[in-house]
Specification:
The protein contains one helix and 28 strands. The protein is mainly beta and about 325 residues long.
Length: about 325
Amino acid sequence: MTRRLRNPIVVAAALSLAATMAVAVPAMATSNGQATGSSVDELFPTTIQLPNGFRPEGIAIGALPFAFFGSLADGDIYRVNLLTGNGRVISEGPGTPSVGLKVDHRGRLFVAGGSGGDGRVVSAFSGEVLASYSFTTAPTFVNDVVLTPDAAWFTDSMKAQLYKVPFGRHGSLPGQSGVVTLPLTGDWVQQPGFNANGITRTPDGRALLVVQSATATIFRVDPATGVATRVTLTGGDAANGDGMLLQGRTLFVVQNQLNRVEVIRLNRSGTQGEVVALLTDPRFDIPTTVASFDGRLYLPNARFNTTPTPDTEYTANAIPKP
């Protein structure tokens, strides 16, 4: 299934990139090891095949038509050309999970390290590891990451705290000593099981929004103090809340086990929101995170209800953005 891009400037840039990649990489390997080229008729598939056994969880898309996926199995990073659906592993993982991902305008991919209790920064171009940070020890699950103008913020589903990697001059990355641990206080009460999961910014950019999976609640967190305030939602709650994506005042919350995306209209400060839509698709099989490109939402299927094997098939799906 194919579609036409909305933005003609993006079309021109995308086709130019496709031509460049065709020269640099005449045929990328598909998930089953078969080599495949690209053609105009194959542009922008709505279902993307990921490598068998990959176990995707996080997704990130920047300004260019490339998606990045992290593997829960071994931490590999897989880059996909959204024009064709072709992809390859650009960075081998450390043997521990790669979970939430975000890419910045400098081409740096920030990776949450799950049970490794860490995070790392990877070049989106070469796959080189630019920096690694140790946040904590077990029990831990560093789950998601969001970028602000001055820092990268990571959640930990097993501990009531966030991890801040502050940026230096011109966005430079700090050393290990620069990492800040911010305890969550205020309305936040740690529960058994998974707690802090998806994270994003408030529409006014002054605070963070964190979904607590165990309580189906979204909290507004003051990044200076860690004080968390429950966000007042009408029309629903954040049951099975996982990855989140903010665009303007619209918040997309992936509800993994419910196989849907909740659409919330927020006020500017992020203290109140109204559930205005629920998005689903028959291809969903426990989607976990969400990214956007040119009128579409892209979501990987984690397939948590399927026993993973080296031959288990995995996909990501694109749906229209409302």
